[in-house]
Amino acid sequence: MKEDRSSSNDRKYSNNAITVYWKPDACVHASYCYRELIEVFDPGRRPWVDLNAATNDLIIATVDMCPTEALTWKWNDEKKNKTVGAEHTNHVKFRRPELMEEEKPAVNEHPVSVKIMRDGPVVIKGNFTLISGSSRKEVTEGILSICRCGESYHKPFCDGRHRKTGFNG
Amino acid sequence: MEEKKETGIHTEVEIIDSGPLRISGNFILKDLQRDKESVPGELFLCRCGKSSDKPFCDGSHKNK
To answer: Which of A119, A131, A148 sits opposite B13 (nearest CB)?
Structure first.
């Protein structure tokens, strides 16, 4: 039986070996996917994901860079998913080594990661207090993607507009 | 010049109204555009896209 708790916007794409899952609601427009592998992840194309445009190794490495659950992947052969261990089936944790580093358990002492994305937003990851006007909110292991181009329709958050306006910065 | 600020382990992220993004405390800045990494303690990041000192705010948002 298939678990179905996905929102209607969610999509999945398959080739003969893997399936990539796309949850647009989780996307913070960090833009790793199309910067790393535009052949496969092309936001200007429909459908925007083409799993036959690169090797599976490359696709997997790129999906693993996604800082959120927006892009995840699985082997089509369920047996293979089991034999590669829990960290691989939990795709959110299955990352490139340098991205794994940020997720080591020493929660509170661990510095917050602030990444300036190339021609894109600033992506903030970790535990911090978010202040806006007079409101203060404690964020635990959160991910925030803040607009740097000034063009987002959903300020202060990035909505991907930098790509359309050709932001350079 | 290594200026280490004792800001404690707590990190604050402040969206300044019609202004920059202020971040202070325990954080690592990784600038993938300029391939730089630093531990500034506090900084103000441009949110308007007009700064000539990106990613930092230079006050350009005020000259509309």
So the answer is: A131
Residue with tokens 């329709």: A153
Alpha-carbon distance of A163 to A169, in angstroms, equals: 12
Q: A–B: how many Cβ contacts below 8 A?
A: 99
> What is the rounded distance in angstroms from the CA atom of residue A38 to the CA atom of residue A53?
9
Instruction: Work out the pLDDT band at A142, boundaries 50, 70, 90.
Output: confident
Q: B5-59, pLDDT tens digit by residue?
A: 444 578 999 999 999 999 999 999 999 999 999 999 999 999 999 999 999 999 9
Question: What total number of domains does chain B contain?
Answer: 1
Residue A41 burial (10 A CB sphere; 0-12, 13-18, 19+): buried
> Is residue B16 situated within a structural domain?
no
Partner residue facing B26 (CB), from A111, A148, A150: A111
Q: What pLDDT score does A109 carry?
A: 63
In the block, tokens 């202020």 appear at B22
Cβ <8 Å between B34 and A132: no
Reported as half-sphere exposure (CB side, CA atoms, 13 A), residue B48 has a value of 18
Quote the minimal CA–CA distance from B22 to chain A in Å. Answer: 9
Reported pTM? 0.65
What residue numbers bound the domain in which B36 lies?
21-62
**ipTM value for the complex:** 0.86
Q: Cβ–Cβ of A111/B39 closer than 8 Å?
A: yes
Average pLDDT over every residue of A101-129: 79
Structural domain spans, chain A: 11-101, 113-165
**Is the CB of A117 less than 8 angstroms away from the CB of B47?**
no
